Amino acid sequence: MRLLSTKATCNSHGQDSSYFLGWQEYEKNPYDEILNPKGIIQMGLAENQLSFDLLESWLAKNPDVSGFKRDGKSIFRELALFQDYHGLSSFKKVMVDFMAEIRGNKVTFDPDHMVLTAGSTSANETLMFCLAEQGDAFLLPTPYYPGFDRDLKWRTGVEIVPIHCSSANNFKITEAALQQAYHEAEKLNLNVKGILVTNPSNPLGTTLSLEELNLLVDFVNGHKNMHLISDEIYSGTVFNSPGFVSVMEVLNNRFSDRDQAIWDRVHVVYSLSKDLGLPGFRVGCIYSENDTVVAAATKMSSFGLVSSQTQYLLSVMLADKKFTRNYLVENQKRLKRRQKMLVSGLMRTGIKCLESNAGLFCWVDMRHLLKSNTFEAEMELWMRIVYDVKLNISPGSSCHCSEPGWFRVCFANMSEETLKLAMKRLKSFVVELSSSSDTDNGENKAHSKRNSLTKWVFRLSSRDHRHRDQEER
Amino acid sequence: MSHQQLLSKIATNDKHGENSPYFDGWKAYDRNPFHSTKNPQGVIQMGLAENQLCFDLIEEWIRNNPKASICTPEGVHQFRDIANFQDYHGLPQFRKGVANFMSKARGGRVKYDPERILMSGGATGANELIMFCLADPGDAFMVPTPYYPAFVRDLGWRTGVQLVPVHCDSSNNFKVTREALEQAYDNAKKSNIDVKGLIITNPSNPLGTTLDEETLKSLVRFINEKNIHLVCDEIYAATVFSAPKFVSVSEVMQEMKCNKELIHIIYSLSKDMGLPGFRVGIVYSYNNDVVSCGRKMSSFGLVSSQTQHFLASLLSDEDFVNKYLETSKKRLAKRHRFFTKGLETVSITCLASNSGLFCWMNLRRLLKEQSFEGEMKLWRVIVDEVKLNVSPGSSFNCSEPGWFRVCFANMDDETVEVALKRIRAFVGRETNDNNNNGKRVEVKRWKSNNNLRLSFNSRRRIKSGYTLPNMYG
């Protein structure tokens, strides 16, 4: 008899993906300005480290919240005991306000329709458990966040079928692609329960256009029992026009009658990990107008509640509207500046990025640096960038991109100096690459390293292929 | 539109188990909660196994250790690193602190390896996680009765795992016998149910007793013979307040031949330290594959880094931990003695117990009929008239009617007095009535609009004595 469960012994947790392997290499040799200046610079982690000072100065001005105090009195006991899965109401109130503020107050949210979860990782998995089961599938536009393979599929048994997007139209979702994905799922005998989009997109860094949103809403509305999940985790990172349009805004404008079925089938996921840069605090949420979903998800949140200590801290912080307003504006300014730095730095190296207005990363076009228009060549390039250039960036194949040569490069998780250094390293590499394409010099330098890693690359790319094969079967 | 198809089966079935009377009593309390001055006639909550006896110790520690908070001037320099920390390995200092605490709770007789400590969303999340690692949908885990009602949700709701009860009764103080194990295992086999393991709670909820060494050894022998897993939920380990001392499965493993790969421990700080709001669940496995897989799964319920940081500080304070364990033990012993002595004055006995936050109270002689219907009737009287929320044994799947779990550590001394007074008055009345010429006692009519209605499930449970109606036909 098999000792462990099928889930424990398969690899649908997706952690054999290059996305995670790059992290592992970084862990072995991490860059440090003083201690390890030749180490690998982490550009594969979509963290927002640009605005901690704003949070720290707020804390300095609000000493009560530390030491578990409210109005000078200790509320430790109260917090220590608070495990109500409905969540701290004062916290949910400020969460909905914060979400509304991010949407320019064009949408309002009801705290009773919000379910708190341990990060959006838990929110997304919980939604899958509520909406789908083995034999069902969700359609996701590619490229998408590699973690979705684990979050949506692993323990739920739900499948992901890709909606292929291409650079030909800047990776926008088209009706044709949507239809094709739907038919693909049918061919695989999967019941399509919905579509999940990340808006703003990871890894593209772009906001969905109104056209795309309408397309998605119409598609879901036109199919029985189909849902639309909008993961809006990056909504507060929009730093440029066009602005952010939430799916909820579209619903508000088009379906004033709340009894219409579509209201029961659109759900938003949010988290404070990206906008506020607090991934360690595990603060996520599901927002839905579907009462049954809210009821079921609330019970399921027992498996991953937000620490009461953290709920309390944030309930006070986000209640400070002056602070939140200032934070959002300042944070966006800094992201915009940082993105520009990366884009122009890459430009100087002859590398273009997809034009983006949000997120903590750029979607970088390195197709011209590939030896051939294949994923093998992408892997080879990626490995050189990790091992020779010493930058951990994320290859497009790990995001299930259908075209080789694209990479996600993060810009908000390091200092300006480190970013500049990264650009310098990349420039030298590209220069060397173009000169070595004439001679074989470049080959020799990396030859020995590549030999020992050849096996690993083969394993990687074949694994990725197997991964993709499973979907495209 | 049928909601059954719009949402998943899991979202719309009631395998979350929340229709149990265990939870109904809470609702009665929520509507009319006791307060010594504001609502002295209210319902006293004796259905919640919380440990409120030692908050003063922690509060004092917090006042003296501002560095433990990342919000205080003394601790804010760590804010950004902690806020950013989402590594599913968890903070090393936190894991060390937990390993140390676990060891101390076992008198230092066992050492725990911090590298084997996995986080999860409370013990709720931990129990679900270990099931996902060890069993597939349709597989079964054996569990001795009576058991914690929420096991139905935690072990089976989203995992699809079935519970196979191992019947224990008062004839031998509810000890688990080899015969009962064999019978449960054989019956499962006959019904073509694949048993993957046995889960025990030691110290026991609701019995409040620790497993004696012989029984524990026999359980280990049993699972070794059958090559199935043993999950030991040791969440009440540090609540052992009198002899016999606590013997953990970890200790027994040191003294006998057994396959380590089959042994797993569930732990939490919710009971021993009274911190359910902080959601600190721990999975400790001696199986490397489970550690590896479980660690990935912990992404769905990581402990807030703010909380990890605080606890790392608290638990690394050796003096504090020693003082805490000693004081907690003393106060629990005192409270237990006071409560059980109080019950004895009206000839109410409890199962002799040495741990936990509750007593397993024997009210069989107060039943009008020796049946689960009789138990339910008595329970409703206790909640409605005596105004005490206690938990009926049937909600713990006890095979004998008449037992009730009564919590004693979640209130102050004053409230315990009030509760005892009410019990004494009630028992006095019942006894008097019974003595009056054999006159039939007026039993409160079952009001059909009473919110304490039993769900369909629990009615079925009363008839068959099994939790899931599909068990054994």
From TrEMBL, chain A:
SUPFAM superfamilies assigned: PLP-dependent transferases
Keywords of the record: Ethylene biosynthesis, Fruit ripening, Lyase, Pyridoxal phosphate, S-adenosyl-L-methionine
Family from the record: Belongs to the class-I pyridoxal-phosphate-dependent aminotransferase family.
Domain Aminotransferase class I/classII large: 41-426
Pathway: Alkene biosynthesis; ethylene biosynthesis via S-adenosyl-L-methionine; ethylene from S-adenosyl-L-methionine: step 1/2
EC number: 4.4.1.14
Entry protein name: 1-aminocyclopropane-1-carboxylate synthase
InterPro entries recorded: Aminotransferase_I/II_large, Ethylene_sulfur-biosynth, NHTrfase_class1_PyrdxlP-BS, PyrdxlP-dep_Trfase, PyrdxlP-dep_Trfase_major, PyrdxlP-dep_Trfase_small
Keyword Transcription regulation recorded: no
Automatic annotation (TrEMBL), chain B:
Isomerase listed as a keyword: no
PROSITE patterns: AA_TRANSFER_CLASS_1
Listed name of the protein: 1-aminocyclopropane-1-carboxylate synthase
Family the UniProt entry places it in: Belongs to the class-I pyridoxal-phosphate-dependent aminotransferase family.
Record field: catalytic activity: S-adenosyl-L-methionine = 1-aminocyclopropane-1-carboxylate + S-methyl-5'-thioadenosine + H(+)
Record EC number: 4.4.1.14
Superkingdom: Eukaryota
UniProt cross-references to InterPro entries, sorted A to Z: Aminotransferase_I/II_large, Ethylene_sulfur-biosynth, NHTrfase_class1_PyrdxlP-BS, PyrdxlP-dep_Trfase, PyrdxlP-dep_Trfase_major, PyrdxlP-dep_Trfase_small
Pathway: Alkene biosynthesis; ethylene biosynthesis via S-adenosyl-L-methionine; ethylene from S-adenosyl-L-methionine: step 1/2
GO molecular function: 1-aminocyclopropane-1-carboxylate synthase activity
